[in-house]
From TrEMBL:
UniProt-listed InterPro entries: Aldolase_TIM (IPR013785), Elp3/MiaA/NifB-like_rSAM (IPR006638), Methyltransferase_A (IPR040072), rRNA_lsu_MTrfase_RlmN/Cfr (IPR004383), rSAM (IPR007197), rSAM_sf (IPR058240)
CDD domains on file: Radical_SAM
Keyword Disulfide bond: yes
Protein name as it appears in the record: Ribosomal RNA large subunit methyltransferase Cfr
Subcellular location: Cytoplasm
Family: Belongs to the radical SAM superfamily. RlmN family.
Cofactor(s) named in the record: [4Fe-4S] cluster
One GO location term (cellular component): cytoplasm
Species this chain originates from: Aeoliella mucimassa
Keyword Transcription appears in the UniProt entry: no
Gene3D superfamilies named among the record's database cross-references: Aldolase class I
Amino acid sequence: MSEQISIYDTPSIDALRSRLAIDPHRVHRVRTLFMKKFAGQQRAIEELPVEARDTFTEQVGFHPLQLDVRLDSETDGATKLVFATAMGKRIESVLLRAGTGRTALCISSQVGCAANCDFCATGKMGFFANLSVAEMLDQVVQANEQIADEGRTVRNIVLMGMGEPFHNESNVYEMLDLLIDGKYFNHPANRVLISTVGITDAMLRCGRRYPKVNLALSLHSVRQTVREQLIPLARKFPLDELRRTLVELNALQPSTVMIEYLMLAGVNDSPEDAAELIDWLADLRVHVNLIPYNPIEAAPQLLGSSRAVRDSFAGQLKSAGLTTTIRYSMGADIEAACGQLVQKMERKRRAITSQE
Ligand code: SF4
């Protein structure tokens, strides 16, 4: 069979539609059912004339990803989805069901990651490939299909899974264009969040192009040496440049920038660290999110701060007037932290292969 056209490749779909003499409204209804109602490929295809269905199904690819594993947390509302790409690589998405009834989805933008952050299981895997537009969108479609029988749909989409989104910038923008376009997913831009370790030029390009899309900066320390130890890319994007970028973003965007701060025992969690963070963030419109750390095998030197330390750090920021939350860590029992499960599965696969 020749290579399939992606359902998101509009010019090719239009050409096929015209060849098969399908009314454009029918293709529009296929898109609506598949991308807005998440009714599934089978149901969407029923919108086409009977005589065109087989050819359309044969020639159009709806799901570039194959769902490999679904793991539901027994302790909270998290579900991890592990997908296989056409190259046979694995990526992860995580569904988070909040007590409020809202559902968030964390998606991956790359297979592995070149940023090599010290605390991150994905970074320790190295980089394999950028995800295509269709592969990113398929995470949204398949996650929604998974929760359809619960009467839920994904409300918030966060690019915080495997990969640095701004290392796959053009595909991420093309994906965003389809996500927020009324003819495709019609997902509100202000319910999308992109998390970056701080690629400053891309943050500004994104802020200009999508003023309503939220940005999160993984800051983790306002000491340059500590930040460089945690995030090697910090050498290229120093703290003073990051601060100037945040000032500019605040002028470009109506929303606040989320500052992500991983709480690491003895590394960045002292009262002095909090005081320096408060100074650094002065006059910026930001929301600080303190993140409890899930230790990973590849970085045994890093441990999470105790709850008492986290609470006191948060208290110090709040007293200084900073909007501060402590992220409730979901899915610890299903290794929901980015890259952990995939890394474990890959290790197991390699061990089995080497025994064969
Ligand atoms: S934290 Fe993000 S940018 Fe850093 S290695 Fe992990 S996936 Fe890449």
